[in-house]
Design brief:
Blueprint: H1 2-11, H2 15-28, H3 33-47, H4 59-87, H5 91-112, H6 119-122, H7 130-143, H8 148-160, H9 165-191, H10 199-225
Helix pairs in contact: 1-8, 2-8, 2-9, 3-9, 4-7, 4-8, 4-9, 5-8, 5-10, 8-9
C-alpha cells in the first residue's frame, strides 16, 4: 500500500490533493462500510424526533462529532505511520503483521454481520461530544473498521516521505477530510431514512455486506500468506526511496 501511494505521489498530483482523494475513496470502499452504518445511526437517532419531549438536531450539529470520529478512526494510525517512518525503517515488518490482523478481523467482522439481529439495531450511535467521538473512533478503527488501519498507516508512511513535515501533515489532514466528507454525506442520507427502518431490510443488507467482507478478507489473507502483498517503505532494503 505504501509503495503504491509513493509511486502515485511521485507521478502526478500534489500530496494533499491525492490524500483527499484517497480519503474519499476509502469512505466509499467496502472496507469502510461499518463507519457508514455508524454515522447513519447517529443521524437517525439525533435528527429524527422521538417524541414531544425530544429535540431534533440539525445535520450541522452532528458534523463536529463525525469529523472527530474520523480523526480517531484514521488519524491516530496515520500519525503512527508518519512518525515511525520518520524515525525508523522497522515499520515494514510491523505492517505485514498489521495486514494479517486486519484480514482476519475483516473476516470476523463480516461473519458478525450475518447474525440474526441487524447491526443497525445493535450499533449505538456516535457520541455527539467531539472528544468522546474521537475516542470512540480510535476503538472503532480496531473493532469496527479494521480494514481502514492499513490504509491509514500507508497514507501516513507515504506522507512522511513526501518532503517537509508541512506537506506531509497537510496530506494526512486532507486524507481525513476526504473520508469525513463521505461520512457527512452518509449522515445526510441517514436523516432522510425513517429509523428504525424495516428490520428485515437492514438484516438483508447486513448479510450481503457481511458475505462480501468475508470473501474480501479471505482473499486478502490468502494474498498476504502467498507473498503477493509486499511492503516496501522508505528505508526498506530494495525500496529505492532512501539509501
Amino acid at each position: 500500500m505504501s509503495e503504491l501511494l509513493l509511486r502515485a505521489f511521485e507521478s502526478a498530483a500534489p500530496g494533499p490533493l491525492l490524500g483527499l482523494l484517497v480519503g474519499a475513496l476509502l469512505g466509499l470502499s467496502p472496507l469502510a462500510l461499518p463507519s457508514i452504518t455508524a454515522v447513519m445511526a447517529t443521524a437517525g437517532s439525533h435528527t429524527v424526533p422521538a417524541g414531544p419531549g425530544h429535540r431534533s438536531r440539525s445535520l450541522l450539529g452532528v458534523v463536529p462529532a463525525i469529523v472527530a470520529f474520523t480523526a480517531g478512526l484514521n488519524g491516530v494510525l496515520g500519525l503512527a505511520g508518519y512518525a515511525f517512518v520518520s524515525v525508523t525503517v522497522l515499520l515494514a515488518r510491523g505492517a505485514v503483521a498489521m495486514y494479517m490482523v486486519a484480514a482476519a478481523m475483516l473476516v470476523g467482522g463480516g461473519f458478525l454481520l450475518t447474525r440474526r439481529v441487524s447491526a443497525c439495531a445493535r450499533l449505538r450511535s456516535l457520541p455527539l461530544s467531539p472528544g468522546a467521538a474521537f475516542v470512540y473512533g480510535i476503538g472503532f478503527s480496531v473493532g469496527g473498521c479494521p480494514g481502514c488501519g492499513p490504509v491509514a498507516l500507508g497514507v501516513g508512511s507515504a506522507a512522511a516521505a513526501l518532503g517537509g513535515p508541512l506537506i506531509g501533515l497537510l496530506t494526512l489532514v486532507a486524507f481525513l477530510l476526504g473520508h469525513a466528507a463521505v461520512l457527512v454525506a452518509a449522515a445526510a442520507l441517514g436523516r432522510r431514512l425513517a429509523f428504525p427502518a424495516s428490520a428485515t431490510a437492514w438484516l438483508r443488507l447486513d448479510r450481503v455486506v457481511g458475505a462480501l467482507l468475508v470473501l474480501a478478507g479471505t482473499y486478502y489473507l490468502w494474498q498476504v500468506l502467498s507473498g503477493e502483498v509486499t511492503t516496501l517503505l522508505p528505508g526498506e532494503p530494495g525500496s529505492g526511496v532512501l539509501p
